[in-house]
Amino acid sequence: MSKFIQVFNPYLKSGGEESSATRIATHLELGGHTVVRFWRSSREWSGPGAPSRFRQPFLMWNNVAVLNELRKLHSRENPQAWILHNVVPVISLGVYRLAGELNAPIIQWLHNYRPISPSGTLQAGGRMLRPDDSWLVWKEILAGSWRGRFLTGWLAWGYARIRKRSDFSSVRAWIAVSDEMREIFLRAGWPKERTFTLRHSWDVQRLSELNKDAGYFLYLGRMTETKGVRFLLELWRHPSLEDVSLVMAGDGPLYSELKDEFRNVNWAGYVHGEEKQRLIAGCRAIVFPSLWPEPLSTVAYEAYEMGKPILSSSVGGMKELVFERETGRLLPPCDSEKWLNAVRELAQRPDLAQRWGRAGREWLETNVSRARWNRQFSVILEKVLA
User: Fold this and answer.
1) Which terminal residue of the chain, N or C, has fewer Cβ atoms less than 10 Å from its own Cβ?
2) CB 120 within 8 Å of CB 139
3) Burial, 93: exposed, middle or buried (Cβ in 10 Å; 0-12, 13-18, 19+)?
4) Which residues of the chain have pLDDT under 70?
């Protein structure tokens, strides 16, 4: 069995990547490996004692103090490899050069489309970009796709320096969470022999006693344009959905803007733990109207675990999780007519929702167990350490 240092910079608000990083470490440990966590939070730069806003961009490139802590940890623990997730802003992009100095192989988990895309979304001004577009980075900079033009350009420049100095040579495995994501990285020129697919694992829990069907549809996620939130809410203005309940659970930029405009929608705000489970247990189906090719959302796992179907946009990794008219529906993004028909069908057919949800539960139990995930990871690890 192997020992790893897991390097991760959580965001200001908890989300899917943090849950995934936690689950990866836990499942590796349960598989017999040792995982030493080196986590530094973005919150360190937002409170008292934080570095000045002038210094932060420079530290994002190379935070010597934090990297020295990692250097000492590596010397003390002597791991076989580092497992990297997000490293900006606090840990810094200098982590790749440090790994080269220490001869530490990196296993880089890809949760979004960085470093191809500075924002991680492959979008500029709401337009999807091709991964092989030679002007991709400039388009994102002009659109200010990550915290404005300056920081988008600064981050892009930082990644350009890494590639020019061959600091990515320390990365022995790029792990995409879906085949769709892997193909996007290959189109961007990533090495085929070092780029792998390993979907999220999951600890499937027993069906909750709370599991019932109260008839409402549930959106679960960040309230952002790219998630299709505005489209979904406009869809619910249609007269045929007047008596169909929609629950919006989550927060984000659009929450405060839209919650008073759409009064026929129930706004649950940010939920987690038992409250989140209760909402999933009571819904007819989960809706996932994303506009961008999200690599692989665990919201499908959460739906299936409770025996619920999912109505999803046919983009990104969701095409590998949602099976048309078997566990839910795959629908064209922003196609109001098809989305309306799909919602109305399940609103009128609770038996259909139950059948699809049951099939989703069976798929989850068969395909995403911790043991299977560890076997798949071992195959990748063998190639990395070879």
Assistant:
1) C
2) no
3) buried
4) none
